[in-house]
Amino acid sequence: MHKNWIAGEWVGSSNVQKNLNPSNLNDVVGEYVRASAEQVETAIEAAQHAWPAWSLSTPQQRFDALDAIGSEILARKNELGELLAREEGKTLPEAIGEAARAGQIFKFFAGEVLRTGGESLPSVRPGLQVEISREPLGVVGIITPWNFPVAIPAWKIAPALAYGNCVVFKPADLVPGSAWALAEIISRSGLPAGVFNLVMGRGSVVGAAMVEDPRINAITFTGSVGTGRNLLNQAAERQKKVQLELGGKNPLVVLNDADMETALDVAIQGAFYSTGQRCTASSRIIVEQGIYDSFTQELAKRTAALRVGDALNPDTQIGPVADESQLEQDLDYVRVGQEEGAALLCGGERVERDTPGYYFTPAVLANATNDMRSSREEIFGPVASVIKADDYDHALALANDTEFGLSSGICTTSLKHASHFKRHIQAGMVMVNVPTAGVDYHVPFGGRKGSSYGPREQGRYAQEFFTIVKTAYTKA
């Protein structure tokens, strides 16, 4: 049985859940305890008690801990990747890549510990010197989703610790295994008791306790739009600092002059890999009318040929969806899209394989319009709506006509259109001739409009959320 890590100890509970493999429902990945509200309170108390000393720890102490964590993750990336693939359904190569990225993130922030700087400025008043520095916030609550169960926790936990904060970490209830494995590595990194705490469990219990407790100074959350907005409202009443990453309905624009092979590869990877369960997925493919028919037909042909199967099978290109509710949501949106007038060119069906699992064939909805529910709401599955645009200006207008603004892309050989798109698309991230999903670990991640709230994640921009600026005056 896998326990929670609270105040430097593994703590059990009578509330235990079985973690099932979505590729094979007969495979129990493990049994994981769920924390009670009282245990969350104990974790918060431990973090608050540990924070004064940890906030004043030396850069060397923090570097050593984060570097050790990153090194072990990288050394065990194959093992961690297999665990991730079993519990979440991501194909093994993708899962190993995600584990490696988590290790790289910890390594990056180990370096950032040594690069933290400040400013010394002369005052406008005689005889005064001004110093501007950054200090940790205190206790940070971290709530992560199920679709990237190692990478997203890493890019929140690593900077929180690097800048001298203490952590109370709640992973998604659906995927506790990867989070527990990460916590087990962190538990042996030399961090003082209470600096890092793992509290697995339901959001209604664990997440609610974290939001309500005044000793948590800030919360960083990645998840659904509805949950994130509720969290923001509750946190605002308590004046907690909040960072939200909530989702997207990301456009990929394909112009008449695009290289067809590049555009098809970009569309398929962006829309369907990781089973489309990425907030940066290309769920709206906006194609200029001159190539719409030929592009859409070839897209459907290649999509239908994608191999759906067990995430651990080396021949599999698309793994299962995460659980029954996600499968039902995918099926429902395919049905809704057809009722609204879109044509289902391929996929959109539950299929059976050698083992019982949540297998779903990637779907292409052609003749879609931007006002359809299937084109406006985040499906979070391998379902792509293909929308026709009159010309570049129309395509840009369609791309921006959404409440979201996380990622975006364009396939074109025109430097003019690529440059214009990069400036005028209303999204936090822009890709030219590369998939909308996939960003480096050392650069900022985040969007605008309904996709994000608060400072960016990842890279050196993470300090904007995980630190507070102090201005000090000294008279000579």
Automatic annotation (TrEMBL):
InterPro entries in the record = Ald_DH/histidinol_DH, Ald_DH_C, Ald_DH_CS_CYS, Ald_DH_CS_GLU, Ald_DH_N, Aldehyde_DH_dom
Q: Organism's domain of life?
A: Bacteria
Give the annotated active site.
245
Q: What is this protein called?
A: Aldehyde dehydrogenase family protein
Keyword Oxidoreductase listed? The answer is yes
Family (UniProt): Belongs to the aldehyde dehydrogenase family.
Instruction: Name the CDD domains on file.
Output: ALDH_KGSADH-YcbD
Q: A Pfam family in this protein?
A: Aldedh
Task: Cite the entry's keywords alphabetically.
Answer: Oxidoreductase
Q: Which residues form the Aldehyde dehydrogenase domain?
A: 11-471
Q: Which residues form a coiled coil?
A: none
Q: Does the keyword Oxidoreductase apply?
A: yes
Q: Which organism is it from?
A: Neopusillimonas maritima
